[in-house]
């Protein structure tokens, strides 16, 4: 069977890597990458070679995407175009439109298309929220008691998941895989969290030491590749084995923690957000207080494979790439 | 390599500690290695946030003198605690502050050699400092998902079904078991097919005799109760020193749940009956153990 794969969000790091891996697969005849901005060049900005991926500049919020799917006779859609932080120019409204309206347009086009057989959507474990009243480890079918997403990225992701479930109901003949990724970590990842660990001083919430989980970019790409080339319907958590406490991360990075009482932490977050430095949503304040851990048994049973990097190994790989090391230690 | 040669090879392996050249590392070297691991973040915690090294070397180390010298805790019938596999330790809760949970943890760790994973109230996980200390010492939120997960992993889980009703009861009600919630712990034990170990803790009732309750202030602070004892708040922080009562902890005969089908956890009648059975077993242990201990403050009373 020949495959024609559409990858959205190819101008971002993980999206580009997925597109290039799929483009290198001889079983796939065509890879079409779409995004709202052109991919970064190879020489600057840490661009990734896209191989024989054909790039089409499409604004997902418009119905142009339907034409691309129709014209190229797409059978597999890998939807990676979920942005986790508002851009400096667009702000939160543009981010929400991009995430939610973009997904609606894409799924609408898939629903109309006769050729689409498989849809893979990237989501996030942030949909579980973080709260002191929820179980310590989330499995895929757990709904958060309280502290479910009410803001920002997590809320977008929860809404996107709602539309994906609706789509799966209306088109039972299409294989739909929904992947909830833990925070990406690795040499090429640039996210609010990776930027946080490169700061010289790390503000933490006094009296709380959240459990964090990371997934290495290589493992994320591998999971997406398998989902795009094999049938694995369902919702899956994706994270490296084990957990790291925030205090462990800070020590491994050789940085100084700055414990702040939670109102002060929130105020500082608001200030840096207003300055456009970092996105600090109430969601992140909760994550920095209560943490979040997910169970990945379902993914491991389904794929018969487990991530190569544990949470700790993924973080160490990120530290190595950025030249960070603990005080007085070699790593 | 043939099997025989392989066997011979294995036979030659001797533990490094018995080698003639082996010397036990200096305490100072050990302490430095410990500090280095802690400072560089080079240690493991499990998915619940349990940090075995911190628990053993720091937290329990601070509790051990209280366990041995202050309360002179005497565990009895330790053989009733399974040495491996999942099990649910169910105990009475008392003492105004949950000191009994800490002492039970020391007893399990030092006398049985097992980590006790307690299920705590959600209030604990909302408070700064207490929440992360609780996770680091191996405890988690009392909810069916966490209880099931720990039992499935073969952990020794501890629960105080009386909750705040037990720990915050008046001194006049000492050694009277309070209501046992909804029996969720029994359902978890049935689902995992693990034994329930009824446990009686005698001595914790006398550490802070609660003779009154500042209800209005407690409500304003969002805590379940604010106790008045003969020494608190009268003597200020000094009133927080627990009275040195004599403690005993007895572990009863394990109650098996593996003969039930896991689906029996959804049968409310069975769960209620088994909950009552566990409650009666603990009350009986308590009555006998209290007589056996005698005076709370020997040799004075």
From TrEMBL, chain A:
Protein name from the UniProt record: UDP-glucose 4-epimerase
Residue ranges constituting the NAD-dependent epimerase/dehydratase domain according to the UniProt record: 5-239
Pfam family, any one: Epimerase
Organism of this sequence: Nonomuraea maritima
Domain of life, source organism: Bacteria
Automatic annotation (TrEMBL), chain B:
GO molecular function annotations of the record: acyltransferase activity
Domain of life: Bacteria
Gene Ontology CC, one term: membrane
Keywords assigned by UniProt, alphabetized: Acyltransferase, Transferase
InterPro entries noted in UniProt: P_lipid/glycerol_AcTrfase_prd, Plipid/glycerol_acylTrfase
Keyword Methyltransferase found: no
Record's keyword annotation contains Transmembrane helix: no
CDD domains from the UniProt entry: LPLAT_MGAT-like (cd07987)
Domain Phospholipid/glycerol acyltransferase: 87-204
PANTHER family per record: MONOACYLGLYCEROL_DIACYLGLYCEROL O-ACYLTRANSFERASE (PTHR22753:SF14), TRANSMEMBRANE PROTEIN 68 (PTHR22753)
This protein's name: 1-acyl-sn-glycerol-3-phosphate acyltransferase
Annotated source species: Nonomuraea maritima
